[in-house]
């Protein structure tokens, strides 16, 4: 086993390392300031104030008013809450439009609704993972309640034209929701300047803690909460607040906003260099979604003649963390639904890996990781060629 401090962590779309400044900000709320924010005494008011500071910081990161931020247990809950709410507003509008490449927190919800008889349209993508806005427009009907579309894909990093689709949906009187879990902290977002009605985010994707997220709810739209049982979050999400989580998310948002563009330039440079090294040294390596507008940190790479699980295992032994397709898929025999939707051949599907960079990565790590990947792929190809020859004799 490689020691933790020697790992090369290239799986930042799965989760990110919590920033030490975030931990420091959270600690007093796990120790001294344990009051319930709903209580009436001064001790609890301090906790309430800290929550409101966190709300302001999160709002600043996505460019909205603090009152439009509803804290949730994460991106999954925020996505579910937005879609559920839209379906409760108008009994005549019960159709949902989404895409085939959504994260499972949207996809599984939509698939379950379809199985229960609801009308759901799943729009496909091109070989680059792009969406055709015309197809979304055609899918929207008089009975459509909501269009739900991710801002950035967690597997390929491909960015969807959400602002354009939000305009179109809004113009047709349809709610527009975006799962921006992978975009927040990586692309500048001024949600108030768009026609987006709901936007989901998650702290652990931008160096905050796990189990805390938020839903932006445009102040002009009707919202029906999914979780009932209390008047927390201005009656939009019941349940005693995850205080330390909220404080941590606020700090992480503040840090992310400070150097967003500068950091993304540095990360893009590392990612591009990494992709160049693999493409140059490994025959048959190809970058999925390379020609699309992509996040700066994600490299989805397909290799021929190898299986990604074998690469993952050998890289793991050398202390390199990455994933096959998406992290949620590790160990699943199905393969990536995103890469399948892009029409990758069976061979490329089987040999695809995702590397995702973050602010704690360095250029030397990128060089080391690339040379180990080059070695591992060569070794596996040699082994499978050997196996083919012995099978033939
Ligand atoms: N949406 C996307 C695009 C994601 O990548 C993830 C997490 O992997 C989620 C939603 C779920 O967020 P959370 O882990 O906070 O529930």
How would you characterize this protein structure?
It is globular and about 75 Å long. The strands form 3 sheets. Strands 2-8-7-6-5-3-4 form a 7-stranded mixed beta sheet, sandwiched between helices. It has a 3-stranded antiparallel beta sheet with strand order 9-10-12. Helix 1 runs antiparallel to helix 8 (243-258) and helix 9 packs parallel to helix 13 (363-392). The two termini are 38 Å apart. It has 13 helices and 12 strands. Strand 3 (95-99), helix 4 (104-115) and strand 4 form a beta-alpha-beta unit. The protein is α/β, with parallel strands linked by helices. Helix content is 41%, strand content 12%. Residues 326-331 have low confidence and may be disordered. The chain has helices at residues 20-26, 42-62, 75-86, 104-115, 133-139, 162-171, 232-235, 243-258, 260-281, 308-317, 337-341, 346-350, 363-392, and strands at 8-9, 69-72, 95-99, 120-123, 144-148, 175-179, 198-202, 213-217, 286-287, 298-302, 320-321, 352-356. Pyridoxal-5'-phosphate binds at residues 74-76, 103, 105, 150, 154, 179, 181-182, 202, 213.
Layout of SSEs?
Elements: E1 8-9, H1 20-26, H2 42-62, E2 69-72, H3 75-86, E3 95-99, H4 104-115, E4 120-123, H5 133-139, E5 144-148, H6 162-171, E6 175-179, E7 198-202, E8 213-217, H7 232-235, H8 243-258, H9 260-281, E9 286-287, E10 298-302, H10 308-317, E11 320-321, H11 337-341, H12 346-350, E12 352-356, H13 363-392
Parallel strand pairs: 1-11, 3-4, 3-5, 5-6, 6-7
Antiparallel strand pairs: 2-8, 7-8, 9-10, 10-12
Pyridoxal-5'-phosphate (PLP) is lined by residues 74-76, 103, 105, 150, 154, 179, 181-182, 202, 213.
């Amino acid at each position: 086993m490689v020691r933790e401090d020697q790992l090369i962590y290239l799986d930042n779309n799965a989760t990110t390392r919590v920033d030490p400044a975030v931990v420091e900000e959270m600690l007093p709320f796990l120790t001294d300031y344990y009051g319930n924010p709903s209580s009436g005494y001064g001790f609890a008011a301090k906790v309430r104030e800290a929550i409101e500071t966190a709300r302001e910081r999160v709002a600043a990161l996505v460019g909205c008013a603090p009152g439009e931020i509803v804290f949730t247990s994460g991106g999954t809950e925020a996505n579910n809450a937005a879609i559920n709410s839209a379906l409760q507003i108008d009994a005549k509008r019960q159709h949902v439009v989404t895409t085939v490449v959504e994260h499972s927190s949207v996809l599984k919800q939509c698939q379950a609704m379809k199985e229960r008889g609801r009308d759901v349209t799943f729009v496909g993508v091109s070989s680059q993972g792009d969406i055709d806005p015309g197809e979304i427009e055609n899918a929207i009907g008089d009975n459509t309640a909501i269009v739900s579309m991710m801002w950035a894909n967690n597997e390929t990093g491909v960015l969807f034209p959400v602002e354009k689709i939000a305009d179109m949906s809004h113009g047709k009187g349809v709610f527009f929701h975006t799962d921006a879990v992978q975009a927040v902290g990586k692309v500048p977002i001024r949600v108030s300047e768009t026609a987006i009605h709901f936007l989901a985010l998650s702290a652990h994707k931008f160096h905050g803690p796990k189990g805390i997220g938020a839903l932006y709810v445009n102040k002009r739209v009707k919202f029906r909460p999914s979780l009932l049982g209390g008047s927390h979050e201005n009656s939009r999400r019941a349940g005693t607040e995850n205080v330390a989580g909220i404080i941590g998310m606020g700090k992480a948002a503040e840090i992310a906003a400070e150097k967003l563009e500068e950091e993304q330039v540095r990360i893009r440079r590392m990612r591009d260099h990494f992709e160049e090294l693999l493409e140059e040294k490994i025959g048959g390596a190809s970058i999925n979604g390379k020609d699309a507008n992509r996040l700066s940190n994600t490299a989805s790479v397909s290799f021929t003649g190898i299986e990604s699980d074998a690469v993952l295992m050998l890289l793991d032994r050398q202390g390199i963390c990455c994933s096959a397709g998406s992290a949620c898929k590790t160990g699943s025999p199905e393969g990536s639904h995103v890469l399948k939707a892009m029409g990758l051949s069976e061979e490329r599907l089987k040999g695809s890996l995702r590397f995702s960079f973050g602010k704690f990565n360095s250029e030397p790590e990128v060089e080391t990781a690339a040379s180990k990947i080059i070695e591992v792929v060569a070794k596996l190809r040699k082994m499978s060629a050997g196996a083919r020859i012995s099978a033939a004799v």
